[in-house]
Amino acid sequence: MTRDIPLFDVPAALSMLPALLYAARLTFLAAILGFAFALVSGLVAYLMGRRARLVTRFVRGTPLLVQLYFMYYVLPSAGIRLSAMTGGILVIGLHFGCYVAEVYRAGFAAVPPGQLEAAAALGLSKLHSLRLVILPQAIRPMLPALGNYLIAIFKETPLLSALGVPEMVMRAELIGAETFQYLEVMTLVGVIFFVISTGASVLLHGLEHKMARKFR
Amino acid sequence: MWAGKLSSLALQLLSGAAVTAEIFLGAVPVLLLLAVLAGAARLSPWRPFRWLALGYIAFFRGTSALVQLFWLFYALPLLGVTLPAIAVAILGLGACMGAYGAEVVRGAVLAVPTAQREAALSLGLSQWQWRRVVLLPQASLLALPPFGNLLVELLKLTSLTSLITLHDLTFQAQSINAVLFRTGPILGIILAIYAFGSSLIDAGMDRLENRLGAWRLR
Question: What is the number of structural domains in chain B?
């Protein structure tokens, strides 16, 4: 006897939603902490300047997935044991830090050198001219690029599933293997990613416009 | 005995590199085609074209590349379309990076000043002539550096295909490791091969830019 199976089982998809959203908290956590670490490691790479050039080129020229494997399989033999989640966040932070360093470089380069001279001529100390003159002008144009990297990191977090971190895509694979409703669960994951990253990017554009108006 | 082991190891790495190269070289034309089509459609005066392109770009840029591959690999067969894993890799990665490329194409076309078009048309060039003789040389030169970055990203993305059963470089690293447990050197070699590939792409794009941009120096 055959039974009509709907092409896309909506009730089944809805029933998967809570488990996926619960797993998504690891996705968010990894994205936000990874981004925070990228901001820091990017600053280090920027301040090191040309000396960090070879390292950043290497990191940017190799796949994040292989870097994750390297952390997960090789570091323990050097005595460094990190959980997949912690190590994954660090690797993501280091990987994107090498991109963020370029954002810092471009941002600071965009401030005319005359500004620093003018600040010195007005008698501002080094620290004051950095805080009051340079940073406000340098950071604003950096924000859209940094926001884009936050979204990019969010979309790279599924790679953590290859190390067994039970984030959203890992959870989706398990649900798919249990129910064989891969169509429902993978579509759902795609929709969740799409809604969040597109929403974030629309928000970012709004912020950009608002700032452009404010600082015209 | 060690020599035999080493040569079989090298052979395994080589076959992995060949699969990676196959996916990469297969995906590049898909990327270029979709980037140019969608980039042009974004600038089309016809609204349905613009919307179609916008939907394609938003969809592929808004979701994770791994999710796209998994969807094509696990979900699409349930809709009755079963593609071999290699086709999933080539089409999926090409479509994914093509969406980013479409924005590059759009940006490059918009960066050519409108006065160029007016000048070309007033010189009696037809619409197609202006596109081919004036727009293309300038826009393609502007698009080259970001395209180089996209190609490096594409090479890096090919590592994801190891998660949909393809025996690429990353997969071979895993399987060699499972036998030998010498993870450090093996992953080190793999990373070096990818880095070499990336710098090869960078160098190639630099040369192409110099060649195509030779007219600027005159």
Answer: 1
- The predicted-structure confidence for B76-104, as pLDDT tens digits, reads as follows 998 889 999 999 999 999 999 999 999 99
What CATH number is given to the structural domain containing B145?
1.10.3720.10
Neighbours of B117 (CB within 10 A): 16
**Alpha-carbon dihedral B135, B136, B139, B144, rounded to 10 degrees:** -170
What is the model's pLDDT at position A1?
45
- What is the residue type of B104? V
- A69 and B187 within 8 Å at the Cβ level: the answer is yes
Assess A57–B contact: CB distance below 8 Å, yes or no. yes
Chain B positions in Cβ-Cβ contact with residue A189 (cut-off 8 Å): 67, 70
B173 phi and psi, to 5 degrees?
Answer: -60, -45
B58 and A CB contact within 8 Å: yes
For domain A10-214, the question of CATH label 1.10.3720.10 is answered with yes
Name which of A9, A13, A34, A19 is nearest A153 in CA terms. A34
Whether chain A has a CB inside 8 Å of the CB on B203: the answer is no
Q: How large is the ipTM?
A: 0.90
Rg (CA), chain A: 22
Convert chain A into a string of H (helix), E (strand) and C (coil).
Answer: CCCCCCCCCHHHHHHHHHHHHHHHHHHHHHHHHHHHHHHHHHHHHHHHHHHHHHHHHHHHCCCHHHHHHHHHHHHHHHCCCCCHHHHHHHHHHHHHHHHHHHHHHHHHHCCCHHHHHHHHHCCCCHHHHHHHHHHHHHHHHHHHHHHHHHHHHHHHHHHHHHHCCCCHHHHHHHHHHHHCCHHHHHHHHHHHHHHHHHHHHHHHHHHHHHHHHHCC
| Domain of B58, in residue numbers | 2-217
Pick from B23, B73, B159 the residue to mutate for testing the A interface (most A CBs within 10 Å).
Answer: B159
pTM, to two decimals? 0.90
Nearest to A190 among B63, B162, B187 (CB): B63
Domain boundaries, chain A: 10-214
Tokens standing for residue A12: 């089944």
Which DSSP symbol is given to B125? -
